[in-house]
Request: fold
Amino acid sequence: MFTIKFLPYNIDIEVEEGTTIIRAAMEAGVHVNASCGGEGVCGKCRILLEDGVVEDGISSMLDAADIEKGYRLACLAKVKSNLVVRIPIESSVDAGVLNLPATPRRKAKIKQMDFEDLKEKGLFLPPVEKRYLELPEPNAQDHLPDVTRLVSFLKINYGEERLQLTLPVIRKLPDILRKDNFRVTATLERPVREGRKTRIINVQAGDTSSHNYAIAMDIGTTTIYGQILDLLTGEVLSEYGDFNGQISYGEDVISRIVFAEKEGGLDIMHEAVVKTMNRVIEKIVKKAKIDPEEISTITLAGNTTMTQLMLQVNPRYIRRSPYVPAATIYPPIRATDIGINLGDHVVALVYPQISSYVGGDIVAGVMGSGMYRTEELTLYIDIGTNAEIVVGNKDWFACAACSAGPAFEGGGIKLGMRATEGAIEDFSIDPVTLEPMNITVGNVRPKGICGSGLIIMVATMFEMGIINNLGKFNRDLDTPRIREHDNIWEYVLAWKQESQIDRDVVLTEIDIENLIRAKGAIYSGYQTLLEEVGLSVYDLDRIILAGGFGSYIDLEKAIVIGLLPEIDTDKVTFVGNGSLMGAKMSSLTNRIRQDVAQVTQMMTNFELSETPSYMDHYIASLFLPHTDMEHFPKLKARMEARQRR
Amino acid sequence: MFTIKFLPYNIDIEVEEGTTIIRAAMEAGVHVNASCGGEGVCGKCRILLEDGVVEDGISSMLDAADIEKGYRLACLAKVKSNLVVRIPIESSVDAGVLNLPATPRRKAKIKQMDFEDLKEKGLFLPPVEKRYLELPEPNAQDHLPDVTRLVSFLKINYGEERLQLTLPVIRKLPDILRKDNFRVTATLERPVREGRKTRIINVQAGDTSSHNYAIAMDIGTTTIYGQILDLLTGEVLSEYGDFNGQISYGEDVISRIVFAEKEGGLDIMHEAVVKTMNRVIEKIVKKAKIDPEEISTITLAGNTTMTQLMLQVNPRYIRRSPYVPAATIYPPIRATDIGINLGDHVVALVYPQISSYVGGDIVAGVMGSGMYRTEELTLYIDIGTNAEIVVGNKDWFACAACSAGPAFEGGGIKLGMRATEGAIEDFSIDPVTLEPMNITVGNVRPKGICGSGLIIMVATMFEMGIINNLGKFNRDLDTPRIREHDNIWEYVLAWKQESQIDRDVVLTEIDIENLIRAKGAIYSGYQTLLEEVGLSVYDLDRIILAGGFGSYIDLEKAIVIGLLPEIDTDKVTFVGNGSLMGAKMSSLTNRIRQDVAQVTQMMTNFELSETPSYMDHYIASLFLPHTDMEHFPKLKARMEARQRR
Reply:
């Protein structure tokens, strides 16, 4: 880590070696004009290196004299030592700006349950255990049947009661026992509820007790993630994610259901998702370098539609009023029965659903985040096209789903895109010149805007008065970047020649409108849910963000646009892929498996579409940040201060 | 029924219309010379019809004058009214014979448990029940998931607790519910032990509660029998038996095991037996005219080898010392998992095994015969190549198996055959002329001898002193029928021209030796078993014979050869196919399913090969009836009386 001092702002920041200066500046909240996103094309991001060593930073946009003086392009120069960097006068504009540095990025801290913690708390009840046994060999006086020999030995030597073998194990047993002189390792699957049967799900010759693995899997609408877990240490041995093969039949759950309703469609959707699951399994097994035979259990978490498609249960009624899912709790299912390529002794545990639109992925998040074990009143939000909201603590839970639309994933945004190479993911604007500072994924010329970038742009411009609380551009500003094009007002983020596409990269008022609708749906969703249970955002002790998108959100900016409530950002944590984490925790301990059923039962689902106040809240939310600024007192004060200046 | 009076013996017997006179005579214990078995070829069985009407009975062997007098051939004449029949002087020989009519045939009475009896005793706990339900339809206020709707309704309206659905049912449920406006019939599989889960194994649209069926099946080494049972009435709707497709790979269990040990052999044996099972199922479903979808459960009983082959469990160690089977109790198994063509909701219950040679067929017999519910000390014998013996009552059981060899099935007998057309199944002999009276299956010319016929021949000739207690023919008797041929002594049952084969039908001393070995193995088997538990045959309250062969055995003759102990024959009952009956009872009531586990646990298996006294008993049994005549006091007295005369 090296320290960089930005002058004239006198702001220090620590960054890793190799970071570009422009990213360091953005992180420090220092604006540097930069249109082209880091390829040295626009030449606007000149900085003066006053002390220290950088790598690169030189381009044809700089003449020899400038280079001699220490000028570099911030988008190309990489940190190699502690630095002192001055943003030149021509880049900033007037001293007033010194008092208005862009806010530094405040992302949610990652907080996940961990295995050691589990062990310490006595919550580690492995669902599958292996026992190495040296059985007495049969003889003329002792010719117990093979199964009886195994079961009696476990009973006498380990106090194991109520043992049951599966047919595949009985089939293997006679030969396995005699392979290594009656020395075998038995794999015992523990009952989730004490007192039920322990099933012997595998037997292996010799001592294999040190190899015992589980798979945790998140079946997402877009992506399927899998992990191999070591059941002895809790360690994640490998992880891999791949696009859900159903994507070619539709982007969202509704289009998947529509397809599944066609003749043979359900089978196709089922096969597509299972094929991806099997590909993921193959990859993680290979990466972890384990014998797939040693995998003893798999836990699957997905939303209601994904779960039904995976289990080949017709999802037709999920999308039809009154929106009835097939089931909440599914019985343990033999993995091979749904086409998963694992040993036929492997039982799949499927996370239960709450309703048609609050599914097992959310329940898994609630379990994995540990929010169900604390007194703290927690709001759990999984941001996506379908956003799910859970509020509660160890004593109660309420949940709801709302349709945010695809804006956060770049859908409905003119140049919207996923957070892949060329997406503008961070942004600031010079309050005087209105010149942009674009940071793109991969430090290449911009192609479009991803969700997290969109939030930052809209929030930044709103706070600077460039767009108003209706999401409209100030028509009076003197810049060629704000213009009317085809009857739609827009801001030019990068000119055609600075972009990777054959036209200007723009942010339009329609894009802003769609973002407002998306954030409005979520804000009014949790607003309504809290109101229904007699609480308000001020009662919240914690907000947990889940989903791939959550990790990229700038918390302050999310508050400015009115997506998150105005809450101490330290109370906001990010849980990552909550669904995968929950699946992992359930794979590691029966304690979580036991608790899941209870949590599922105590969770009350609210159908927002049938809650009259939801529409009122929604309409009131279709502003930046909200029609009622009293919901955002600090922002209100800040904006009033700015207007006074 | 008509009454026939046989003169000069003055013996009356009731027979059905259409019975041949020769069979009626045999049943009455009246000897009529008859070599050819009923085709009118030998012409020896002339009788004089003194009163009444017969059909047929005339052949070219009778001249017109004889016919006019009322002579008929007994093997051709069929009873059409009450008759008075005189056996002519030339057929019987001297008056002394009048005092020695052949003993009338005493077969064991059939005694089986029946359904009404079960109901009366409160033992009828159907393992599967159907419930017709009219569920409330979902609406905006009530959008319970489909599974929850079903489960809650059953809970609230019928007090059903701990319900679990299987995946196939969850898959069907959404569409089935909506097929007939939420009117459905649920099939509930009751737990064998109270307090465990009730599984909903099927759902059907509308009211199908009057159709609920089970299959019971006996998986025999030779034959596979199946029945369709109506679970509402206990009625057997259809039954069918077919040869086990494994027969082409070997006649007995050992040859099946040998084949299964070959590369791929186990799979072939598994497929062969399952193919037959499926053929039987197809037949009984067709005969019962039911929808196979309405079959809810199947119970399977077979010996240890058949069970392992059916379940595809390597039987290799069954035939190798120390003779270890894979398992005693098998878990419930999904029928489709072993290749049975039934709905995937059908769970197969497999009867437990006791040891490598006392299998589920015997346990089923013990259950089905009800002997496990009585105070009476009962000996259960299943006679076959492998004979199984169980002794005990409601408090305890001991069992053993012994290898009797195939003599009872015609194996090792020069002209031995199964009891199919042309087999001599009954026999008497004229004590003076030593002329035979052969009765064949199908009333055709003899081809050979079946097991029941063999016992009668040997017993009859032994009692008459034609063969001695070593099984050797009396060399001094003046008849061409007893002769030495290729160094082996034999009795000619039918001359070549009276037979269906191109040579004389004979009974040889080697045949007798094999029969003695077979009966000796069984007698010494239960002798040893009883001794091991401190009892003797005189303590027995009841003997139950099982197996196809048991129904044909003449009880008195079986005592004479020393197969059965000298016991009041009224105490001997015949249970038929005990295995099928047990499977049937388990299909009808969970009470039997519960009891099976207990019975299995309380049954002590004795390995006769490791019981030193067994060999002594066996050697002492290699006589007619036994080396120690004190075991057969009545027979001893009878024979002494005969010698004195």
Chain A is about 30% helix and 25% strand. Residues 91-99 of chain A have pLDDT under 50 and may be disordered. Chain A touches chain B through 47 residues (CB under 8 Å).
